[in-house]
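Section 5.1 Outputs to date
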Amino acid sequence: MAGLTDLSIADGRDLLAAGEISARELAEAHIAAMADGRALNAFVTETPERALADAEASDARRAARETLGPLDGIPIAVKDLLCTEGIMTTASSRILEGFVPPYESTVSANLRQAGSVLLGKTNLDEFAMGSSSETSHFGGVVNPWRRSGDDRPLVPGGSSGGSAAAVAARLCAGAVGTDTGGSIRQPAAFCGIVGMKPTYGRCSRWGIVAFASSLDQAGPMTRTVRDAAIMLGGMAGFDPADSTSADVPQPDCEAALERSVRGLRVGIPEEYAVDGTNPDIAALWDHGREWLAAAGAEPVGISLKHTRYALPAYYIIAPAEASSNLARYDGVRYGLREDADDLDSMYGKTRGAGFGAEVRRRILIGTYVLSQGYYDAYYVKAQQVRTLIIRDFTDAFENCDVILTPTTPEPAFAMGEKSDDPIAMYLNDVLTVPSSLAGLPAISVPAGLTADGLPLGLQLIARPFDEPTLFSAARAIEDAAGFDTAAPGGAGGAGAQDAGGDAR
């Protein structure tokens, strides 16, 4: 059973096709792993009955020689921000506890059409607002990794921390995350897995609980670059129900993995050498450049001069959009309702009881920057900065084909370490936010360890809708790094891999 949970999506697909295993056997192995891994708190809702039904349906299709989807029989998890028909969807907030949507998000519907087996809904920062998965109403998620000689529990990153921890601990073969300012890539780096944010508009936002509508994008979280390419193929596609969905051709990203990176120009932005970056991460960035050069790529220096303004601009734009999106949670139509003598009091009591501290903080920030007298000074200025950041990337891509950076300025930190310091928490997104503001595809690839045994990621960024080039460069990094994505502590989250003092 343990061996089945070690299979990648690609390996599981091949063994299923060869008839060496059944989808039911694969599902049962992962259901058992989920039970063993509950201490990680990676799931809000487990769906073992649904998983077995999906698996049996896949086995029946295979036996009947029907056309199979790209993920047929593969057990996955879905972030509890995506609405799932008949299955509780909470956004990890008290205000939506017990809410069962009567409809399915387009991304999860696409994955079901692709034949995937749904194991359950993963935990996250409440309404995807956070960088540590500690703001969940259902309790924080635990990273399965540990520092060498230190058994303190670490955060898995956020907001897609439940998805990242579940993949790293072998509780599922792959998982869906969402990325607003780095919420796929940062937890992927903290948990030693692959996390990919597609171009804005590549995957439909319909049926995904909104945080910041101009930034939110679903993407795959997997153990290998190939698995991410396979999973994206099952998720993506034009959706007329989503006005921001892009009607563009869907490339074969798995086929792109066979491309050579010889002659590829790799941009190295000087502005991403931010103060306070962990020295192991800085050394790994140098390794990444060397690995790509050894594979035939050409590193070139580039400048993204407005990068320093990306984080403050993001923390104006995203809360502004959140304050608008979260106005719908008022206790009238669905979710939590607190009794009160009048409507205004009911609104206030419901929202005060239903939203956690971080969500309330961002709603207040967003309402402030959109208020009369401050709209032009804050929100309009932030949007102007966003335009300049997009222009920086456009200019940079005249001289390079992909951009290589670290994913985060530091590795995973201890649970509770930054809970009382919102600014320190927000700084975790400093290297992922710029590409989010520009709507660009980006991927974090696990590529090394700190001296005390924690995983580190390298980030690649590509032109809009050029996911094939992004995947081919990511595969080159993955091959050179030779990183073992198995968290040494497994589902229990104890122990740590010996780093041998080498950032690689």
